[in-house]
Amino acid sequence: MNKKSLTITSFALFSLFFGAGNLILPPLLGFKAGNLWLLVVLGFCISGVVVPLLGIFAHAKLQGTMFDFAKKVSPLFSLVYCYVVYFICIALPSPRTASVTHEMAIQPFWDTPYLLTSFVYFLLVFLFVINRSKVLDLLGKLLTPGILIILLLMIATALFTMDFDFTSSEIKHPFSHGVLEGYQTFDAIAAIVVGAVIIISINLKEKEASFEEKRKLIRKAGFWAGVGLFSVYAGLILTGALFSDQFEGGISRTSLLSELSIKILGGTGSILLSILVSLACFTTAVGVITGTADFIKGRFNNSDLAYKITALVSCVFGVLMGQFNVDYIIAVAIPSLMFIYPITIILILLNVLPDRLTTPTVFKTVVWTTILFSVPDFLGSMGLGETITPYISWIPFSAHQLGWVLPALLALVLSNVIQQKTKIA
């Protein structure tokens, strides 16, 4: 494997996870974290960087599709899981791209409603999905470097011009707060939904390479992509923390990013960032809806009609949800993420581990344990926290909304121990 292959693969992995929606999360997280920004960085990067990259490693091992991630539990479970994940994708992160576009590129200049932006936005998305234009692929290759250059310039300017004085934070659990905010990147889901694309691309470009050489390439590329993601996320969180005393506490995510870009880069830089982010949002929405339509098409004997209907329904969802502001969509997403993300994380981890430790029995035990102990966090995110607290207070990390973690790990260990003893007997 030459350096060119490593560079191309590293950048492809970085681009896979570096969505425009992710840009609006770290600055506000740092803004609220203040002097606790480092703990928040560590938590955010576990769920927003480490887990997604492990998802890529799992894809490298499986050499399959998203369906293969959960089929050891059962084919029916895997199918239901796939449908749920795709529904979440078209109902939440896809519409969020329209809201981000409105708040960053439309609202500052024109007094038009969200609904108009959402309608025009998803009408264009539908046309691109139906026609499968290659323009977006070419555009995407230019957008990510453009956004990255502006962001790194903004971060570097803030680091070298600001005093490192931080306000005190009111966040009670900064590390777990960072982990849960990282759920909103949807990057773990992205890893299993479109991670196979990277694997297929490597197989096509490196036909003569052995399995071990490809795995080594993915590991190295994953490391450098992870370094890039960590640098950007940490830099944006730190930048938000450095400005924690310069804006009102109730400022929205998109407004904070826009205001930071104006203060650091000036008006021209802010406008350029808004345009690039909006275009990147558009490519993300097209990618999500195309992927969903492809999945449904495959389930219906490669029916073009199924593809078009799915694309249309997805765009209608986009218009309906895209008419709300970004913060509202993020709030609405919390319950679904509190339920689906633990399952996704566990499926990724199980697929990364050696097969001898992850038999079908182990898979079933660990996944169902995770689902069971995710229910309290799911209910808590729906406003029922005070009602269920007396019943779940004994669960470790339940106060951090991570009550599923230890039970899942214990289920993994105990199911393997029992299975090993059964073999010996």
Structure described in brief:
It is built from 17 helices and no strands. It has 425 residues and is mainly α. It folds into two domains: 3-334, Up-down Bundle (Amino acid/polyamine transporter I); 353-425, no CATH class.
Protein traits:
mainly alpha; globular; Amino acid/polyamine transporter I; 425 residues; transmembrane; 80% helix; transmembrane helix
Structure, described:
- Its main location: membrane.
- The protein has 2 domains: 3-334, Up-down Bundle (Amino acid/polyamine transporter I), CATH 1.20.1740; 353-425, no CATH class.
- Helices cover 80% and strands 0% of the residues.
- The chain is mainly α.
- The protein has helices spanning 3-17, 20-23, 25-33, 37-62, 67-70, 75-91, 93-106, 114-131, 135-161, 174-183, 187-205, 211-242, 253-299, 304-322, 326-352, 360-392, 405-424.
- It is built from 17 helices and no strands.
- The longest helix has 47 residues, at 253-299.
* The top level CATH class name of the largest domain: Mainly Alpha
CATH homologous superfamily name of the largest domain?
Answer: Amino acid/polyamine transporter I
CATH architecture assignment name of the largest domain? Up-down Bundle
- Taking pLDDT < 50 over at least 5 consecutive residues as the criterion, the unreliable ranges are none
Helix count, DSSP H or I runs of 4 or more residues: 17
Q: Assembly type of the shown chains? A: single chain
Structure class = mainly alpha
Helix content: over 70%
- Domain count: 2
> Based on CA inertia axes, which overall geometry fits?
globular
Our estimate of the beta-strand percent is: under 5%
Transmembrane segments: 35-56, 76-94, 114-130, 142-162, 182-202, 223-244, 264-293, 305-322, 328-353, 365-385, 391-414
Pfam family, one: Branch_AA_trans
Subcellular location: Cell membrane
Keywords: Amino-acid transport, Cell membrane, Membrane, Transmembrane, Transmembrane helix, Transport
